[in-house]
Amino acid sequence: MMLKPILLVEDNPRDLELTLIALEKSQLANDVVITRDGAEALDYLSRRGSYLDRPPGNPAVILLDLKLPKMDGLELLKLIRTSEGLRNVPVVMLTSSNEESDLVRAYALGVNAYVVKPVNFPDFVRAIGDLGVFWAVLNEPPPGSLRRARTLQQE
Amino acid sequence: MPSQSPAPSTNVTDSCASEPIHIPGSIQPHGFLLVLDRTHGGILQASESVRRHLGVPPAALLGQELAGLVQDPDDRFLERLQAATQAERAPFHLGSVSFQTGHGDFDLVVHRDGGAILAEFEPAIPGTQLAGLGDFVGRAQQCETVDAICELAVEEIKKLTGFGRVVAYEFNAEGHGRVNAERHDPGYVSFLGLHFPASDIPAQARSLYLVNRMRCIPDARYEPSPLVPRDNPATGAPTDLSFAELRSVSPSHLRHMEAMGVQASMSLSLVVQGRLWGMISCHHALPRRIPLAVRTQTNLLVQIVSLQIEARHAQAEAGRRHELQHLAGALLSAMAEHDSVPAGLASVPETLLDFARATGAAIVHGDDCLTLGQAPGRDIILMLCARLSRIAKSGLFHTRDLPALAPEFAKIRELACGVLAISISELHPNYVLWFRPEWVRNIHWAGGQPAPGDEAAAAERNFRPWPQEIRGQSLAWEPWELDSAAELRTAITGVVLRKAEELAGLADELGRINQELEAFSYSVSHDLRAPLRHIAGYAELLQEYEGKQLSARATRYLANINDSARFAGRLVDALLTFSQMGRSALKPTQVNLAQTLEQIRNELAPDLQGREVEWIAHDLPAIYADAAYMHLALRNLLSNAIKYTRDRTPAVIEVGADARDGGHVIYVRDNGVGFDMKYVGKLFGVFQRLHRMEDFEGTGIGLANVRRIVERHGGRVWAEGVPDRGATFYLFLPGAEPSATAAPSPSKKKLRG
């Protein structure tokens, strides 16, 4: 079994590129699945639409932008937290702003971390790297997710 | 009769107020009266005086038809009699008649009373010359005052009638008459300016004067001539002589004339707006008969005078009402310009006083009492208002005699004997009150004051001036003043309602604008930050991946791009913080500023690396405020102080506090580069900077944040500075809550140094 992927939900192509570079720089081995809005991310998570045929299993972590077309980050988060099969997937909210009301709502909906993307690029790389390492590598995932499987495989 | 205006001769009222003066049963004998059945002209009653004028006893005439007794060439006398008496109680001069038995011509005046005709005969006075009224109306119109019109009238009437003395007088609110015009011959005393007490003319006489506007007494020493029979046989009741010119005179009135030394008189009523406004009285020392034609002419003249006075009054009233409307308009616009009705009224004190021609005024708003002009003390005004809430249900109250309401008000009558008050709230005890002082004046009565019931004294009354000081009342509140006050009240309650609506509207509008602002700053925070991040990111990546191929200049440009993008990011962040500070709610708690200062100094420690800073920290109080915001404000000031003392060795930074106006002034002083006081107005504005960027970096929003924080706490900020000599920043924070102003602990003194 492969490493479970990181699901990145980001609509802005520049942010997407910069985030991918930051992830690359952090040298994580996980695949990164890219979806461009909340609806597509939900398709992926629910294995439906164009993701009907993807292998089963949840991502190691979802890096979720707040402002998204069709279905925004908070709406998606709410669906994830109320869905039986998805409830335990770690979700990190990536956002441009430290707007207090967003922060409060995100935590109320059960976000695992809330990160304001720094304007300074090295800081941004560091933040994304830290997040990837913590949630995809260090964090002990819920039973049935990828790292436990990998550990078992290695044993 | 108001007891506080003691008038002479009150006993006259007592003795004759109940006298049935309209049915004396007799007439003055200078003419004779026949009471006729209106249907056939048969004589029902005749006065005793027919004996003198026609040479027959009255009984001889009873039952005869009048038409058969007089010269009636066309045989239509009865018809004319009936035609002239269609309307009831309207005397009509039927012309001159003579009897078949001779005895000369008589002027005949008839009027109807029910089914009876009262026919009054007076011997015609031969050779009567009628002088024209000339341009009386034109001259009256040119008079500037009512007194001048009366002056003109008495002059004209004296000429027409030849009476020895003609006076005009005006009744005041209490019914006393003041002589305002007079013409008299030598030998007559002058009454000009004197007051005749109301009691001189009893109530029932006044009502008779109102309907029958002329009264002649050619000889006060006449022998009354009774009607025969005494009662009208058709009704079995005495004949009502109200409208009979010959009606016999009340004995008290005759005594009055006697005391005045007058044997003949004629009185004419000045009726203005349906009210007995005054009288014109003509006196003669000897008996004097005035021909009917002259009397008619005089009566006409007096009616013209009445109309002229009425016109002047209407004009003056209209002028005053117009002025009051103007003043009310000024008051309303003052209210509209101010936040509250009391503040608006207080801003135009002169107008408020003028509005009611008052010497003092008060605006009572709950327990607050603001006084203007000469007004009594707050406590007694509030006591009065407490009473008003019970008695003035209509919202309007007025009195000329406040002590009559309760004796405790007697002590303020020199300031507030008269009170006009309006309630300006349906719910709260809010009033506007106007005050007028007691009106003290000296008047001269015509004649002394006989003891009550002393008929002899009344008879011997001389009419020499008798002075008296009148007090106990303010000037009267005029009807138009009361009307205008009521209108003002309606308008104020309207203003109050409209203000409430405006406030509600403003609150809605503010809420909407706030929402828009929130949406705007939300959008700025997300959408503006993202491209800045991209610029910085790509600049960084370009340097990282392609740096080796870039020239030194390109590398420098790239660094500048990166710096600028990052600085723009900080600006956006600062602006957002500033905007959030205006929107989010304060969470006030007890804040120990000394602890806050210590925390900030720790946070700023990295900036102090390699610097020599001398701190002077005085005792700081505990205040009631939002801890996070106060931290931010103080941190801004301290980091500024550190920044602008960068070139000083040592830098001296002093922090202290001072108690003031129940709150605290907190200051931060440094010995840094300072600033020119002419730019002090820009210091606390958003994005205002007084130094070049390369000298002192910064977003230009720090002090705007400080100001916003302090103002949201109800305080204010200010600063003093001298270029190159340092600056001091002050924050004043009011003691918002009793617990908030808790003094520093006892061991600490307010301020050292």
What does this structure look like?
The complex is a heterodimer of chains A (155) and B (753). Chain A is of the alpha/beta class and 155 residues long. Chain A has helices at residues 13-25, 38-46, 73-82, 100-108, 121-138, 146-154, and strands spanning 6-9, 32-35, 61-65, 91-95, 113-116. In chain A, helix 2 packs parallel to helix 3. Chain B is an alpha+beta fold. In chain B, helix 5 packs antiparallel against helix 6 (146-161) and helix 9 runs parallel beside helix 15 (479-527). The A-B interface holds A 12, 14-15, 18, 21, 66-67, 95-100, 117-122, 124 and B 522, 525-527, 529-530, 532-534, 536-541, 562, 565-566, 568-570, 573, 576, 580, 584.
Features:
heterodimer, A: about 160 residues, alpha/beta, 5-stranded parallel β-sheet, 6 helices, disordered C terminus, B: about 750 residues, alpha+beta, 7-stranded antiparallel β-sheet, 6-stranded antiparallel β-sheet, rod-shaped
Q: How would you summarize what this structure contains?
A:
Chain A has 155 residues and is of the alpha/beta class. Chain A is 44% helix and 14% strand. In chain B, a hairpin with a 2-residue loop joins strand 5 (102-113) and strand 6.
